[in-house]
Structures are given as C-alpha cells and as structure tokens.
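Quick one - inputs below.
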Amino acid sequence: MSRKALDYDQINENVKKAQYAVRGELYLRASELQKEGKKIIFTNVGNPHALGQKPLTFPRQVVALCQAPFLLDDPNVGLLFPADAIAKAKLYLSYTSGGLGAYSDSRGLPGIRKEVAEFIGRRDGYPSNPELIYLTDGASKGVMQILQTVIRGNGDGILVPVPQYPLYSAAISLFGGSLVPYYLEENANWGLDIDNLRQSVAEARFKGITVRAMVIINPGNPTGQCLSVDNLKEILRFCHKENLVLLGDEVYQQNVYQDERPFISSRKVLLDMGPPISKELQLVSFHTVSKGFLGECGQRGGYFEMTNIPPESVEEIYKVASISLSPNVPGMIFMGCMVSPPKPGDISYDQYLRESTGILESLRKRAHMMTDGFNSCKNVVCNFTEGAMYSFPQVKLPPKAIEAAKQAGKVPDVFYCLKLLEATGISTVPGSGFGQKEGVFHLRTTILPAEEDMPAIMESFKKFNDAFMDQYEGNSWYSRM
Amino acid sequence: MSRKALDYDQINENVKKAQYAVRGELYLRASELQKEGKKIIFTNVGNPHALGQKPLTFPRQVVALCQAPFLLDDPNVGLLFPADAIAKAKLYLSYTSGGLGAYSDSRGLPGIRKEVAEFIGRRDGYPSNPELIYLTDGASKGVMQILQTVIRGNGDGILVPVPQYPLYSAAISLFGGSLVPYYLEENANWGLDIDNLRQSVAEARFKGITVRAMVIINPGNPTGQCLSVDNLKEILRFCHKENLVLLGDEVYQQNVYQDERPFISSRKVLLDMGPPISKELQLVSFHTVSKGFLGECGQRGGYFEMTNIPPESVEEIYKVASISLSPNVPGMIFMGCMVSPPKPGDISYDQYLRESTGILESLRKRAHMMTDGFNSCKNVVCNFTEGAMYSFPQVKLPPKAIEAAKQAGKVPDVFYCLKLLEATGISTVPGSGFGQKEGVFHLRTTILPAEEDMPAIMESFKKFNDAFMDQYEGNSWYSRM
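Output:
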C-alpha cells in the first residue's frame, strides 16, 4: 500500500503534536450534543457575542457604512445613521484606496496605525511610532508570526506561564520549538515568582535549550490575575539580564474587575525604568478587538507593537506579513473605532459610554458571582477573577474519581468536565489543556454567560459538582448520578 | 555585545529566505515615490478595487445589514436596502450564534459551508460534502495551512510551476521545504509539458528530495493560461502514479477571456475519470472572494475543499485551524453571496447580472488591449491573457542593458522595472520574482487599470520601452532618457 503525503502517518509531526484544548475533546462533544438537540452553554472560549453580549452600536454603524459607501450619498442615510458615524465612515474610507474591498498595505492601513499609535501614546504617556505597529487578523495571528520569527528549531525555548492560554503551546509545537514552562502560584493569587522563573531557565539550559523569549499574559488567561508594577519590573529586568524578547499578551487590558491594580502596560513600565533597559529590551505587545467591551471576536482585528526591535528585523516581519497580502480591512475599522471612540460632545458619545460601561460593570458582577459560586461548592476553590474573562477553579478530585477516570481512559479533569457537560450542558475546558501542577485539577469557564442566567448556571454547576463529590467520596452510594 | 532573539542575525533563517516579490523592492520604491507625490499605477498586485473597480452592490448590502442588525427592525430600512438583501442578511445571521462578532467554528459557519458545497455540486455535476470544505481568510491562508501540513523538512519537495505566484515559493521557504520547479512553456502558450514534469521529479529525487505535492494554478498566475481537460487528465494521472497530493489553485475560475477552453475544475476532471484514480488521488482545491468579479481582496474570504483526504488528517487540519480560532466572519458572508447570488426573479438579480458581466466583459477587453499593447512594443512579446488578471510579457533586454543593470547592482529585469516605474509611475513586478528560464526576462502587470485609462498607460509604457531599447541598443545615443 503506497503512502500519500496527506495520509495521517505521513503529515508533519509538528502539526500532530500541537494541542489546542479550547476547541478540543470537550468542545467536539459539546457540538455533538448540540446537534442532538441538547442546550449547550459554551463557556469554553471567550466569545462574548455568542453568549448574548450585544455589539457596541457605533463601531457597527461605522463599518456598515464603510461596507456600503453608496449609502453615504443617499438622502435617507440620516434616517438610519447618526452624523458622527457617517463622518467617521467617510474619514476611514479616506484612509483606503479602494475601500474595504482593496488589500491594504500588509502592515495595515497607515491611518489606522497612526490612530493606534496615538492611543498607545495617551495610555502610556510616551509617544508611539506607527511604523512599529502592524495590524493583524486578531492577536493570535500576530503572536504566531512573532513566534515563527523567533523559533529556529527545537533547541529554541520560549518561556510560557503555566497555566497558559494554549495558543502558545500549540504555536510553539507547530513551529517546532520547545516550551519552557514557568509556574504561576495559585496560592499567591496566581502571582509570578521570579525565583521559580530563574529555575525554569536553568533547567531548560541544562537540557541544552536556548531560552529566547518569554510570554506574559496580563491580565491572565486562564488565571485572571493582574500583574503589579513591581512584578512587571522584575520580569523586565529578568528578560533584560537573560537576553529574552518579552511577548506581552495584553488583549484583556480593558477587562479589569478590581481597583487595586489597574492595568499597566509592559511598555509603560519599561519606558518608566529609563535607560539602558528602556533602550535595549526587545518587547512585542499584542492587542485585539475581540475582548474588552467590544468583544468583536468574529471580525478578527488586532495589532502588535514592536519596541527596540532592529529595523532589519522589522523589515523581515513586514515581508512575512506580505506573503498573505493583507489582514482583513473591516477588522482594521473596528480597531480604529476601539482606539478612537466617540468623544464627549459627539452625538454617539452617551450611547457609547452607556453601552461600554454597562458591559464592564456587568462583567465585574459576573466575576464575583462566578467566583463566589465556585467557592460555595464542595472540594472547589477559586481565586477571584481580577481581570480577563475566565474563572479557573481548582477541583479537588477524590481518589475514587481519579480511579474512575483511569478506568474510562480519561485524564481526571477531562472525565470531570465531560460528566459536567453531559449533566448540565456547561461546556468548559479541563485544566490539563492549560497546564497545571502534577496531581492538581482545574477547569476553565468564561465569565460570559448573561448576568441573569448566571445564578441558574452556578446552581446547576453546584448541584452536579456536589453530587459528583458525594458519589466519589463514597458518602452517597445511592446518588442518582 | 550580547545577541537578542529578534536581532537580524538571530532570527529564523527560513523567515529570511522567504521572498515575496509582489510586495518586494519595486513595491517599496513605488510606495516611496507615492509619498513624494508621484502618481503611481499599482499593477503589482491583483487588487481590483484599488484600481477603481466598484464592488458588487448586493453582497455589500447584505454584509452591511449583517454588521448592523439593529437596522433590520427599523421601519426605514426599506428606504436604503432592497427586500432580498434584507432577507439574505436575516438568513445569514441565522447561520451564526451571536452575529458577525462571534467566533464561528474554526472551519467556518456550517450554513455557508453548505452553500459552498451546493455551488461546487452545481459546477462539477458531483455532490460535494460540506464537512470537507473549510473557510479561510482568503485563499492564501488555506494554501499555507496545507503546505505546512505536508512539509516535514527540507527533504520534502513541492512541485511548483515556473513562472509561479510567489506565495508558493515563499510559503515553502517559510516552512522549511524544498521547491521543485517545473517549467511552463512560453512558446506553447505557457502550457505544461508532462515530460518536463517527469524530468523535474527525477532530478529532485536524484538530489534526495521526496516529492510530495504538486501545485497547479489554473487559470495561471502570472501566465494567464487556461488548462485543457486533456492536460488536466495528464496531470492527475501523473500525480496518481507518483503519489503526489495535487493542490489546485483555482482562484481565477471566473476570470476567463476566451471561449475555447472554459474553466473546468481539477475535481470535475478527476471525478469524470472514475475509479481507481477518482477514489485515490488526494486533491485540495482553493477558491476566494478576492478575484472573479467580486474582487473583494480586503475582506479576506476563501475556502479549500479536500478530496480523498483521510478523516484523521482532516481532523488534524481542523485542529490547526482552531489554533487561530476562526476565520473572519464577514469574509464568510461574502463567500455565501458569491456562491449563492441573486436568482432570476429576485429584486437584485438584474443589477447583479449587469454589474458582474460588466466587469468580466471589460476585463476581457482589457486583456486584449494590454496584450496587443505589449506586442506593439520593441523587443517585447506577450502571450494572450486567456484567464486570471495578469499579463506576463517577455522583454528581450539588449546586452548593454544587462551590462548597465550589472553596473547598478541589479538583476536585469528589476533594473528595467525600476526605470519603468521612475519614468511612468507604472508599478510592475519583475519576472525574476516568479521564476523564469535563465537569461530570459519578463515583467508582470495586472490587467486591472480602468478600461478608459488603458490606452494612455500602454502608450506611456511603449514610449518608455522603445526609448529604453533604443538607448541600450545604441541606436539612439541622443535619446532624452
């Protein structure tokens, strides 16, 4: 029997090695159950609109007008669109040559990159250079492009927090590099311990791995922690000393649910530190329109900003971006609306403010409801979701449950999450998909179900969990589970 | 001096090796000149809207409504949008859970994949399975994903036509594979000679390369040829015999400007051939919303269809697609509108037909104007553009011009194209970016400048070219060039 290039045993091993649990076994099973007619609550992925979050009106008006520029001259356009959306659409169309249907420069529309630079300048208090900002089809594509540029082979290591968002592990596998884990401390509210980081690097080097970059996710996914300025300084010093590029995944910068540690960008902390580090440390920061209060996941808009990357390398990154010609242009319009929203006095300002603060305030409430809900469950402990969109409770599985999982041929947390799914329709991701310490189990849910649905969901979770625990702790042999 | 991971000499060599001339030196110089205020005619990339092609109205109306679903309930919506666009937008929103702002399944919206399958079924006369159709951010992203799946290392070779569209050479470099060239015959109207193909494979094997896949671009880019059924059969038999996956780049299937050889898909020819080949040959076919009469490049909509790929490999391809979560959803709406356009009797049918045939008829005229224009120039010969969007004239450079290029440190065709750009503002791509036989020189232009601008552009080209030839043939020492 001859072998063909796309036979399973013939394809690229790195493709097979890559794992992406957010759309893994649990998601596939949930999709099956949904097809069979079961009601599924998809909390496996941070996809706000899929769980009922309404899009902000203003960016949608602007992009609709950009898609249908013939409306701009229609005498009736004012009946459906406010004047500031019309003006913004005209402005954004003036940034393009040929409207949304033309490829842009492969780095994105210059006009939007300039708006992003102004946003970063206002946020950090240091001007930003649009030439070092590249627009992307969501942040993921940017992360993948930078990892591909850094990774030369399996001797190259990337420091990744554990638990981590599996984009990183998957992309590192795909590009044939080595993931070097550093553990976040659950008992210290998922904080980052520099000694632990040093040890990870030392162990990797002992194995012959050249550690080349470090990923931080701030606010954290799946862990929800917000890094302090002091912690960020330590990280930056560490990267500088060890010659690591820092990849700052800051896609949740608008999603902060406590007031003690507001979001502060890696770039601001770096520039505050002054030379030599501020002139030397290589930093790439990522942002998106998919999270925050826009939540426009399906539009795929993102950017990355490069700090202290030499011009010849910036050129190489441009060249590779150009191979797929151009990110999608409508996503750039969303990015523009996100970084330069309506201002006080604009017609749409009040509505924009009401909608955006409404979403963030509700997410803050939901973060509390969910954390409190988990902590009320038997054998479940959960740090408060300080930021981002996820809850990552630890589930202390009884030995009998672990044994039952083994019998079923499943990793214990997968076993638990599958049972949860079958019993309640709640589609989560097992902690093993993000990495966790040996013998400790978690699950990740988003905090995105609608506020009014949250009590019922948490009740349903608690009912399942407590019965599960009773069953496997042997206290309730007659449980109907 | 310590070395950092994003220093130029430290980055992934495959990134540096990748070349993409369509956005290379010529494009960069043209962008500079444009900034300096020079009028540039960008014919370097098949980007119709950038050169004034108007988008089809109906798909834009549908996507605008999908972006602004709050309009659907507005009593005034009928003043701006026709009823069939409103109905289509409602249908497409019913395919999503959460509208365009929600990630779709990583393979794309099931409802759109079904419409694509129906389109393929009608086109080929054989039903197509939506489960084997994946939507992508333009065809390029699909091509890159499949190449990444096939290529395991530099011992793996991919047969690519020369001249070729440099997406292929660039992606093969990026993924660390080996490009195995097969030459198209300019004297045989860029036809494909199977003996030549056999020889390419034999030579590659002699060098220890495992040839695993073959790319065809039909209609051709940059060469414009349309493959005959007989030629396609030969190719399919060859791939079957040699155990190659066939990658069928069919993005220009709507762009055909002669009646002798209408477009026929590789898949139809394969299925017409019957078993065993129709059950065994592995084929992946690509399509897009960027070309044809939509020309919606900036929207990034595409798909690939897999034929005879084993289910476990299809699953792996799904998993890798899921790492970047979801293609952009608005691009899927364009794909839906492309494969299921208004039907006779629908309100928008007449307008859709008028707009789309208007574009194709004008492109056909422009193909003739351009080919005739080139053939009227000194030392230039050009095959007729049978299909796609490009003209690829051969430019017979005099020895003195080649010598002058060498003095200037330029490849001869780059030298010529740069001079052309400086003199006329016409931004082309040198033939060396696509590959050409040793000592033979070409350039690629699109046939996309507006029909009314074409005579002046061709005149400007001729004036430049003939003076250039006079200068370097030494017949006109007093030329004012």
